[in-house]
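Notebook, p. 212. Picked up where the previous page left off. The plan for this session was modest: take the two constructs that came back from the sequencing core last week, fold each one, and keep the raw output in the notebook itself so nobody has to go hunting through shared drives later. Recording the first one now, exactly as returned: residue sequence, then the structure token string.
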Amino acid sequence: MAKKSFVLLLSFLITLVCCAGCGGDMQTNEDSSDKKSKAGTGKAQTAAKKIIEPGQLISRTEAESFAGEKLKNGQCDEKPEVGMKKCFYGAASEDSGNFFQISIQQTLCMPQTALESGQNPKTIFENTKKILSEGRIDLNGLGDEAFIGTIALHILKGDYYITIRLGNPNGKENRKELEAAGTKALEKLQSLLI
């Protein structure tokens, strides 16, 4: 019973981290795709062989096309306890609250202790999907599974869990743009894994 409670609590905390905006210490990065990450000791070595940076999936220029306005350079952050890398592109205009954020969780970035407790991108995605069941919009044709919930697009593709948020606090109003961004991110993911 205690283990089940722990897993549920951990899943809830992971969901909060996934849905968080641009919290924490973030670093500005001109082009995340140039940044090379190394899996540290204690990181899982699985079928996935490459660590993917979120800026490799959606560049600032691409994010601008989905947001419909100029954006600042990406601010990158990591949440290693859940294997997450995140890139936040804020509006260039001081008068706009618009933004584009993409995060990716991947087994190669997760600590061994999390993996041993049964956490991986797929289980985190599934738990998030359960938690966000109310008002969730399930989607077909994006990755292995996808849905829109709590102002974000959530995509599971193999060993990767991608989350995309786009400015407006109502993901349903941004559905077309979110799906287009998800399609672009999946195309790039596929090309990076070849």
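Okay, moving on. Second construct, recorded in the same format:
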Amino acid sequence: MLLGAPNKVGLEEVENPTADDGNSVVRITHSGVCGTDLKIFSGGIPANYPLIMGHEMIGEVTQAGDSASPKVGSRVIVDPVLYCGECFHCNIGQTQLCPNGGLIGRDQDGGFAEYVAVPPKNVFAMPDKITNQEAPLIQVLTTVMHAQQMASVSINDTVVVLGLGVGGLLHVQLAKARGAKTIIGITRSKWKREVAESIGADITLEPNDLTKQLVLEATNGIGADLVIESAGKLSVLAQAMDLVRLGGRVLGYGIHTNTEGALPFYDMYFKEIQFINARAATDKDFSACLEMFESGKINLNPLISDILPLDQLGKAMEMVGTDAPQRMKIIMEHY
């Protein structure tokens, strides 16, 4: 599916990628659609057209780039973060910040296609336990894992998650799996609150004038140790700063494209808030997430709301852009 210009995507024949330059070639069977795809689709995130989008993808290796990579016929997940492996950031393990890298599906053709060429180091064999429909969500989970490792979630923490979309609900599950003491999920959607409760949230709240009071009651008047902003809205980030305790941590997980806006800046000083912002994930996060899923501590199936054939990608973009009450992850089936 080729994006020729903002909001214009269609089925086109393109030349199949090959294993030139040591790449592996993966025949994509399933892919996931997310808010980043919508921003690329609409032009909110700049891209060079024409472009094949898609960065949450799984499939089968048809050409193996080197002897160390998963073999031909292996069922694999693709890490979409490209990195050089030689720069300062790569040498200290910050491959997601590589200035010479990029994102498959944004900076080069991605997974909304029949085949994709990727470096062998970006391909990970998947256990049989993960279904094809669930597997694209592993990529989202890696970004959640990376963020929570930076935020140092511990067994004594009270964690508030603001926004219970796919990322927020994965934060709920992972915080529970990492041993957080109390997890509070906050969203306007009653249905999403029920989903959160079913997968590990101890308390769920609707945001209103009583929210802060209820969080304080749940934390003995102190406030949350960690507040995860998972909505990508400046007003929600401000709420995170309000709900966190003195000396607490705010994790910015939602992607903000604002260039200016109002925040309670004095709270940053007075409350001595630690701000953590996370971007993408590393290869270590993929390995950790696959192990976490195999342990049975993560349930991805409740986060899938729609499954569509790839030729309906345009419809999927419309669906992502509308606020349907029971919409979560949209999975595209390629065959």
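Notes on construct two before I forget. The chain has two domains: 2-134+300-333, 141-277.
Flagging for discussion at group meeting.
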